[in-house]
């Protein structure tokens, strides 16, 4: 039976689905050594298999999507793991001959067209006996060569341009040579004496006798890493490369001393001679004409530059007269009239490419009258369809009326049909998604409707970011509260005597962790026999609760550390200790509270089908909760507390700063969780809920709380917000209308740009009346 071509890692010479590999690499967090790559990819495969087992059989589309991810993951493993094994097998130290053999094998197996890399490695074959060298030295030598690897371009009728360093022009010749950068502090650079090894000591060391027996043990010939690549097509006299642009700031490689194994310790005089040699090499490579130039303006400091004395000497050699700086500046200004902030010449005819021509033409039209400018730039709309669309969109966004380029505005029939599946009656929303509407309706559209998100790049983290910190905090809270409730130790009280709790003791928390994709098991062990005859004191209660925090947080931190691969272990550990301190203070305040609220349920979720019993309260429901008309809410409540009177209160834990005002109800539409979660809990539990609460339970938040009673007035406020959003969805009107300062914290700044607030102020405000009204709600 023939194998399915879809199961192959390579299809018709192309890798299978490399565009989706980045997502898999982010999900698996493979940064690290070979063992980590194998373990994390295997763990991701097990997790995907677990998702298939937990998915209902009738959800065929979802199952097929997960199977497609598995096929992509298998293709990634088939391609990547052999390369990772080869990288892991690289020696710590070896001769250049051994390194070249390893690198050739790696290039052949990793690259589709390894010819250029193999040619570069062949250039180093004369060094095969040199060594041993380590990987750092290999990178030092190969880095510049492979980074600037020259590839022979196709032959062109009118020739081509070679761009390279001065050292790469050794032995080559060109019809015309351009040498830019002849300005003071650029070429030549300011030459200062090395304070650690002055010139006098350098001269003494250079003249010292050297043991000739050590000459053959030099790991890297002097000056070798500084050699630039040579263009394979830039052969003297060849018409394929008649023009060259050579950087004057590059100095030639330092030649090795023929009688020693050490590199020449250059003095200031040596460096000055090398700079002169660089200029001679660049000028000597020109067969017909050479152009010298220098930047007239220091852009960073906004002041004029002066030409290098090398430019003066070159002019004296060419013209027989030494010009002054003022004369050179005048000649340069008359030759080119460059302008800051407008990278184009004054006349379009002097442009060297299409972009310069377009900018030069547009600059001349800015100051022209309307009659003379009309239609002059119309060719831009036909030259490139993408440019035409971008120009029209940008111009329409500045109009004093709403246009389709301002977001979801003036939707056509196709857009309205698409929006029909995003009405309150058709789908559920989370409280966090709805809160984006008040900040900016277009942000709500991009995140909740189009479901765009920031692109994640796999990289070793240096500090614990707020999202990771919040996840660690909430997961630890869930495990600790679950264990405390199972042991019958909630609430923690300020003073506990034998008459209150009798023989209650806190059982041991046993956490069993096997494969990262298996269910998390939290079991409660039997009480310690030595504690059975002792009453539980406050100190013992808190100490045992702190022990639960330490054990749960340490386990979770190890799991996160394995996934995220922090770059600096000490910084990571400091962040974990900060979370530990916040959790301990949260427990201490809970034990000292006399308000009568007892933690009852933790992570009570509704409408979250991707959560299992290990992640949520047993009373969680898989369907969204319908509240306030046809609006359906999905989400998870961090904590549900019960009062002695029988009333309930919901709490959403926050790990950031307390940004909500003291008397917040909906906070201008940006704080909907207290009331929406209170209404949802009322439906799920079929019990009366008194209030919702935001609890900033960390030192950053000052352990402040914002309690929002579920009364008639507050219910009207949240209903007003939902009514406004419902109408916006029905009208398909979600424009880019940010509130003040919202763009500075928006993930979609690259989509809109930074001037949306300014543009919105010029638009008609009659369609934003309801939006402004909810922004004014307390």
Would you write up a description of this structure?
The chain has 778 residues and is α/β, with parallel strands linked by helices. Among the domains are: 82 residues; 55 residues, no CATH class; 141 residues, no CATH class; 136 residues, no CATH class. The chain is built from 26 helices and 21 strands. Strands 12, 15, 16, 17, 18, 19 and 20 form a seven-stranded mixed β-sheet that branches. Strands 5-7-6-8 form a four-stranded parallel β-sheet, covered by helices on one side. Strand 16 and strand 17 form a beta hairpin.
Helical content class:
40-55%
Described by the principal axes of the CA atoms, the overall outline is: globular
> How would you state the average pLDDT, rounded?
79
Biggest sheet overview: 7 strands, mixed
Q: Structural class, please?
A: alpha/beta
Quaternary structure of the protein? single chain
Question: Strands, helices and their partners?
Answer:
Layout: E1 10-11, E2 14-15, H1 18-28, H2 34-54, H3 60-88, E3 93-94, H4 96-110, H5 115-123, E4 133-134, H6 135-147, E5 161-165, E6 174-179, H7 199-207, E7 243-247, H8 268-284, E8 286-292, E9 297-298, E10 303-304, H9 309-319, H10 325-335, H11 354-366, H12 370-373, H13 379-383, H14 385-397, E11 407-408, H15 413-419, E12 429-430, H16 431-439, H17 441-449, H18 466-486, H19 498-501, E13 509-512, E14 521-524, H20 538-564, H21 569-592, E15 597-606, E16 625-627, E17 631-643, E18 648-654, H22 673-685, E19 689-696, E20 705-709, H23 712-731, E21 734-735, H24 749-752, H25 756-761, H26 769-775
Parallel strand pairs: 5-7, 6-7, 6-8, 12-17, 18-19
Antiparallel strand pairs: 1-2, 3-4, 9-10, 11-21, 13-14, 15-17, 16-17, 17-18, 19-20
Helix pairs in contact: 1-2, 1-3, 2-3, 4-5, 16-17, 18-20, 18-21, 20-21
